[in-house]
C-alpha cells in the first residue's frame, strides 16, 4: 500500500512541476532562470495585436497554423456529399426501382379464385367426356344406372358449392 501511495505522490509532484514549467513558458519566463521570486516584469505576448499600427493582426495563409481537427477533416465533408450523390443517382435507376416480379401481388390475390375455377373446369371436362362416351356407346339400357349417375353429379355439385362458400 505504501509503495502505491509513494508512486502516486511522486507522479503528482512530477505533474505539478511540469505544470509550473508550462505556466512559466507561457508567461515568457525562462524555466532555468528562477522561481517565484524572479524580478523580471510581466510581458505581454502580442499574438493578435500589432502595437506599432495599433490594429489586429490577420493570419496569413503562408503562416504555419496549428494542426487542428478542422484542418484534418477539411475535404472530408465534400467527399462524403459527393459519394452520397453518386449512390443516390445509382439508386434512381429505373431497373433498380422496378420490382423483380411486378405482378406477385396480383397472383397472390387470384390464387383462391383460380383454385375454385380449376376444380369447376375439371368437373365440366369430366361431364363432357362422359357425355361423349355415352353418345358414342349409345344410350345405356339400364335406366336406374342413368338416374344414379345424375344423383351423384348433383351431390358432387352441392358439395363443391358448400366447400367454395367456406373458403
TrEMBL record:
<protein>
    <recommendedName>
        <fullName>mRNA splicing factor</fullName>
    </recommendedName>
</protein>
<feature type="compositionally biased region" description="Basic and acidic residues">
    <location>
        <begin position="36"/>
        <end position="55"/>
    </location>
</feature>
<dbReference type="InterPro" id="IPR013169">
    <property type="entry name" value="mRNA_splic_Cwf18-like"/>
</dbReference>
<feature type="region of interest" description="Disordered">
    <location>
        <begin position="136"/>
        <end position="167"/>
    </location>
</feature>
<dbReference type="GO" id="GO:0071014">
    <property type="term" value="C:post-mRNA release spliceosomal complex"/>
</dbReference>
<dbReference type="GO" id="GO:0005684">
    <property type="term" value="C:U2-type spliceosomal complex"/>
</dbReference>
<feature type="compositionally biased region" description="Acidic residues">
    <location>
        <begin position="156"/>
        <end position="167"/>
    </location>
</feature>
<feature type="region of interest" description="Disordered">
    <location>
        <begin position="25"/>
        <end position="70"/>
    </location>
</feature>
<dbReference type="Pfam" id="PF08315">
    <property type="entry name" value="cwf18"/>
</dbReference>
Amino acid at each position: 500500500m505504501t509503495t502505491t501511495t509513494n508512486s502516486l505522490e511522486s507522479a503528482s509532484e512530477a505533474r505539478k512541476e511540469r505544470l509550473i514549467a508550462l505556466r512559466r513558458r507561457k508567461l515568457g519566463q525562462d524555466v532555468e532562470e528562477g522561481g517565484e521570486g524572479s524580478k523580471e516584469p510581466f510581458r505581454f505576448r502580442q499574438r493578435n495585436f500589432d502595437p506599432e499600427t495599433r490594429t489586429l493582426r490577420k493570419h496569413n495563409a503562408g503562416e504555419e497554423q496549428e494542426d487542428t481537427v478542422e484542418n484534418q477533416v477539411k475535404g472530408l465533408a465534400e467527399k462524403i456529399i459527393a459519394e452520397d450523390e453518386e449512390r443516390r443517382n445509382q439508386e434512381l435507376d429505373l431497373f433498380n426501382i422496378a420490382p423483380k416480379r411486378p405482378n406477385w401481388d396480383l397472383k397472390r390475390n387470384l390464387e383462391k379464385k383460380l383454385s375454385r375455377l380449376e376444380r369447376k373446369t375439371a368437373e365440366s371436362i369430366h361431364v363432357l367426356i362422359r357425355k361423349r362416351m355415352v353418345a358414342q356407346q349409345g344410350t345405356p339400357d339400364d335406366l336406374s344406372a342413368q338416374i344414379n349417375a345424375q344423383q351423384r353429379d348433383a351431390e358432387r355439385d352441392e358439395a363443391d358449392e358448400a366447400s367454395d362458400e367456406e373458403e
